[in-house]
Amino acid sequence: MLVSLGIESTAHTFGVGIVDEEGNILADQRVSLRPKEGGILPREAAALFSEKGAEVLANALREAGLSVEDVGVISFAIGPGLGPSLRTGAILARYLAVRFKKPLVGVNHGVAHIEIGKLLTKTRDPLVVYISGANTQIIAFENGRYRVFGETLDMGIGNFLDSFARELGFPFPGAPKVEELAKKGKELIDLPYTVKGSDLAFSGLLTAAIKALERYPAEDVCFSVQEIAFAMLTEVTERALAHTEKEEVLLVGGVAANKRLQGMIKIMASERGARTYVVPMKYASDNGVMIAWTGLLAYKAGIRTDPSEPVNPKFRVDQAEVPWIEG
Ligand code: AMP
Ligand code: MG
What we know:
Blueprint: E1 3-8, E2 13-20, E3 25-32, H1 42-64, E4 73-79, H2 83-99, E5 104-108, H3 109-121, E6 127-131, E7 136-142, E8 145-151, H4 157-167, H5 175-182, E9 195-196, E10 199-200, H6 203-212, H7 218-244, E11 248-252, H8 259-271, E12 275-278, H9 288-300
Parallel strand pairs: 1-4, 4-5, 6-11, 11-12
Antiparallel strand pairs: 1-2, 2-3, 6-7, 7-8, 9-10
Helix pairs in contact: 1-2, 3-9, 4-6, 5-7, 6-7, 7-8
The protein binds adenosine monophosphate (AMP) and magnesium ion.
């Protein structure tokens, strides 16, 4: 059976995953940089990845009980992401492909979040709400590509929640703490709501929310931050659902863990006759399995990447070719 080995290294996680053609997950190994404060330092991440990359690879092969010779396709995340992180994974992938004479497939990281979500929730043609630390996009397949029907104009919703949480003294990733505190909130504070057409923005809300902490209980500010940010996201998702008329809504990315957000999207979608699915949390964050699976789909559809092709830190999901999807 055809087996794909996938390497993820776009941001804070270096992952190696191995899957087979039937979608069985044979290995999932990861190492992550956990910054104590502030964001990810690209060079620190790349240094960690170079140091641990070979070990993560060896562990994945051991977990699957395979050697590189048994692998049919070498897949790697070619973008988008941080240049230094991307290059460490690409170097390892190119080396394996050339040394062991294996086909190489460069995968779009956002497309991989979508494809692993589809595999694990058995959805076929969903409207995807891609909500992670750095990303916030509403995506659906239309006319041969994944199209973006709405997105953040400034920061990703996860980074927004984590930045707000940092003001409350919660280290990265602080968003789950905001969710906890929000459960005790009672009063909805008036904070900026920014939806521009089909897009949304968080920086005005962040500034106002930090300021509100001087005057209101933290629980109420957390509650209001979630209510307003998630209402913005639900509004742009509803607009995209009305336009695309999809029957499935799929939440992917780490922020999909949020129960309040899941609830809001579920209610909106069901009112439009659509069902809501959430990627299993184990595969919501960055991992090598999603790269392996998407690389396998791409390989079977004829995609090959030359080892000389550079990584693309700005590779958008709507620039990726997805010939394995019909329609
Ligand atoms: P990712 O970038 O996909 O790895 O996802 C990580 C992001 O998900 C971080 O910004 C986390 O703070 C965020 N996150 C994790 N759990 C929750 C939660 N319960 N509510 C909101 N955001 C969350
Ligand atoms: Mg990601």
